[in-house]
């Protein structure tokens, strides 16, 4: 066993302090193993090597299940090796068996912060403040220092969208890494791009308001007005318009009202009082 500061032996006595409490400071990877388990002996040096290569960004905690049977039972260990990753006091993911190094790295990278994550987080704050030049510099710095950061392509698309290249961003979003498919930020970006794309060459908001006041059956004006409201953050106002469009004209844009409401729900993360309220209104209108 290596004497690395990034690898520790864990028992029932110190599991709480090292794994559960310690996982609030950094991720803790717990390797449940046994001396008789040949795959365990194969996996052990690889995990120790990675713990050192990641430079302390996670702690490797080793649990000998022959000596710590109660711990193994507590965490549902039924086969060896089993490796669980703890964050903020609980196990959030696991793998079983002696996986090859690339798969273990992929597993770790889903959960362990990279040094460049701070740069991308700052870039997002600058994008939100409309400081595109500042955001671009940080994204370019990340591209130079850590081109393998899985979140880099998302930041590049967010910058592209903020710069107005909506079409290219919308075409590129499906090419994001598979690890980001279910990321809430991707759903938010996809929703915003959908509405921004609809507004390409569209009239300004006041002109659409005038059109709708003149002709309440103007479905295009209603939808484009909803898109304007989404992009300026008036999600309730947008949902009102889309709900009304769904009630009046299901044929417009192949049910654009209902699909637009679903897109706003995704943009809002799929939960919350506003989503629950308008989801109920949508279902009542449908049935």
UniProtKB/TrEMBL annotation:
Record domain Thioredoxin: where: 6-113
Superkingdom of the organism of origin: Bacteria
Keywords: Disulfide bond, Electron transport, Redox-active center, Transport
Signal peptide, first to last residue: none
A Pfam family hit: Thioredoxin
PROSITE patterns the record matches: THIOREDOXIN_1, THIOREDOXIN_2
InterPro entries on file: Thioredoxin, Thioredoxin-like_sf, Thioredoxin_CS, Thioredoxin_domain, TPR-like_helical_dom_sf
NCBIfam families reported for this sequence: thioredoxin
Listed PANTHER family: GEO12009P1 (PTHR45663)
Family: Belongs to the thioredoxin family.
Designated name of the protein: Thioredoxin
